[in-house]
Amino acid sequence: MAKIVVFGASGRAGSRIAAVARSRGHEVTGVGRDPGVQAAASVAAGYDVAVSAVADLARDPAEFYAEAARALVSSGVGRIVVVGIYPLLETSPGVRLVDSPDFPAEHRPFCLGHAAGVEVLAASEADWVVLSPAGDFGGEATGTYRRAAVDPGNQLTYEDFALAVVDEIDHPTHHHTQIGVASV
């Protein structure tokens, strides 16, 4: 079984990811809202997997997500799994939803902040994957999910998303990429 640290374990996604991982026999350490991004590097050191399910809405998103990604990369953790957002999924090859001309301008800074963190990961030698709900969170838990492209109308539960995240930890099949997860 893996030794996993979940940053954001007190949040909606992080708490469910931690619970599913524990139920499968993994050794899980949950880190709450704010241990400080720099502290993340020392906390994650020695773990097999670090899951990042964090947000800091009081900070500049680009600064926060890039700093968080740098901290995880510098920790030397075996694998980095990030909870992403669907506007960064591609609608066609090389074109993300956030890049479309009709994407709401007020949401762009937060989305591009997430993208800054992904860029840090992509430029590193770390083993990483970003899993994003293909749409919004909601609906009834089904115990199933599917890989999917962006689908803003899709309603995926936190519980089903957590299954996808821990399945990727148990059977790491995606590396250096971002994938979408949707309800069945």
TrEMBL record:
Domain NAD(P)-binding: 39-172
Pfam families according to UniProt: NAD_binding_10
Molecular function via GO: oxidoreductase activity, acting on the CH-NH group of donors, NAD or NADP as acceptor
Protein's name in the database: NAD(P)-binding domain-containing protein
Record organism: Lentzea xinjiangensis
